[in-house]
Design goal:
Elements lengths: L11 H5 L8 E2 L2 E2 L1 E2 L10 H14 L9 H21 L7 E4 L2 H16 L5 E5 L8 H10 L2 E5 L9 H7 L4 E7 L11 H9 L5 E4 L11 H4 L3 E5 L10 E5 L1 H6 L10 E4 L4 E3 L13 H17 L1 H20 L4 E4 L8 E6 L4 H10 L2 E2 L1 E3 L4 H6 L5 E5 L6 H18 L1
Parallel strand pairs: 3-15, 5-6, 5-7, 7-8, 8-9
Antiparallel strand pairs: 1-2, 4-10, 9-10, 11-12, 13-14, 14-17, 16-17
Helix pairs in contact: 2-10, 3-10, 4-5, 11-14, 12-14
This protein binds 4'-deoxy-4'-aminopyridoxal-5'-phosphate.
Length: 413
């Protein structure tokens, strides 16, 4: 069925050989890994880069004059430059290394919040946000006595843009929405969302956790004010990510955490903070994580986003068509523009039972709320089953999922 792809510009079998984890058996069956929206697997090139770092140049960055420290610093800063190019930021001052999307959003909610949010102000998010793009804003609202406003979704899982426009009063100080929904796969019209906010002078943060694995991101083209990504979603290590922020905002925002690295000089009477981007990078960073992320960026760029998204779209459409042929199947999230995520429920069968039986068959899917409880509540469901596809997945694996679902139905339905 690999030949079923009309567009394949790379050899999936060869690609899969770079992911040794995929060759194992789970519960006696060949692993089918469809939990990529939770975290993707890592290619050998990334793993080798991290191994090479620890076995040849491990030392702290920006500190020593000794050779290893200089080498580690060069590799670390090379990863920052790769991240800058990856997002098409203007300068490396706009690239803050973080632990990931959650960390990046917390940083902005705290620091932007300290500077710009006052009692009575409003923050706009959407109904399809991941908890990490809800809770930090709620915490900020509590601290500052501000208000959270929510853009509703329609039944297809698309943001209702007219309602969004109605929310944008003078009190709104920031809009924070996801680029791609992790639960439904919806690709939001982020350019339009940003233009509408900017026409009222409101900055926008985009949660790019689920966009980076699938879509080319260009922060200048989007004119977005803050953009956050997590390396582990796009073939890199866990615990590393990037916060992109426009320099004019980052300059004006106070530090998020205090400690080493983020200071220029310290005395008991006065401490001077470091320049961007270091002002927001207190403590020893995740050096290996950043370097591994740089290697993941190379991996993606070698494949090319056009190839990635065209192939993943084929997987998505193949899976959607096959799922729709199953009696009692309901796909949750039928937006016009989707990334390779498909959420579903089978009539009368709890998602947890579906997930458990599929696991017995070696098929890894995610079940539950997917950290988007308000969204799943909107659909009045106990959760969904989510299959999310990466560039190493195959049509045969989707056939295995479909067979598995038939088994689930036979056993419980
Ligand atoms: N936002 C979205 C849309 C996500 O899918 C995720 C990860 N599931 C996050 C935020 C949080 O990312 P991380 O756990 O890497 O901080």
């Amino acid at each position: 069925m690999q030949s079923g792809s009309k567009i394949l510009k790379f050899d999936v079998d060869k690609l899969r050989s770079q992911f040794p984890i995929l060759t194992q058996k789970i519960n006696g069956k060949p692993l089918v890994y469809f939990d990529n929206a939770a975290t993707s697997q890592k290619p050998l090139s990334v793993l080798e880069k991290v191994y090479e770092y620890y076995t040849t140049i491990n030392s702290n960055v920006h500190r020593g004059i000794h050779t290893l420290s200089e080498k580690a610093t060069i590799e670390f800063e090379t990863a920052r430059e790769k991240s800058r190019k990856f997002l098409n930021a203007i300068s490396i001052e706009e690239i803050i290394f973080t632990k990931g999307v959650t960390d990046g959003i917390n940083l902005v909610a705290f620091s932007f919040g300290e500077k710009y949010i006052n009692a009575g102000d409003e923050i706009v998010i959407s109904e399809m946000e991941h908890h990490s793009n809800i809770v930090p804003w709620q915490m900020l609202c509590e601290r500052k006595n501000a208000k959270l406003k929510v853009i509703p979704v329609n039944e297809k899982g698309e943001l209702i843009i007219d309602e969004y426009k109605n929310l944008l009063s003078e009190k709104v100080k920031i809009v924070a929405v996801t680029h791609v929904s992790n639960s439904l796969g919806t690709i939001n019209p982020v350019k339009e969302i940003i233009e509408i906010a900017h026409s009222r002078n409101i900055p926008v943060l985009l949660d790019g956790a689920q966009a980076a694995p699938h879509l080319k991101i260009d922060v200048q083209e989007l004119d977005v004010d803050f953009y956050v990504i997590s390396s582990h979603k796009f073939y890199g290590p866990t615990g590393s990510g990037v916060l992109y922020g426009k320099e004019k905002f980052l300059e004006s925002m106070p530090p998020y955490q205090g400690g080493g690295e983020m200071i220029k000089s310290v005395s008991f009477s006065k401490t001077l903070y470091n320049e961007l981007p270091y002002k927001f990078e207190a403590g020893t960073p995740n050096i290996a994580g950043a370097i591994g992320m740089g290697s993941a960026i190379d991996f993606i760029e070698n494949l090319g986003y056009e190839n990635i998204s065209t192939y993943e779209n084929e997987l998505l459409h193949y899976a959607t068509d096959k799922l729709n042929e199953i009696d009692g199947m309901r796909i949750i999230g039928t937006a016009k523009h989707k990334a390779s995520v498909v959420s579903f429920i089978i009539n009368g069968i709890h998602p947890y039972d579906t997930g458990s039986i599929l696991d017995q068959l070696g098929i890894a899917v995610r079940t539950g709320y997917h950290c988007t409880q308000p969204l799943i509540d909107f659909y009045k469901l106990p959760g969904t089953v989510r299959a999310s596809f990466a560039v190493y997945n195959t049509f045969e694996e989707i056939d295995r999922l479909i067979e598995g679902i038939h088994k689930v139905k036979k056993m419980i339905g």
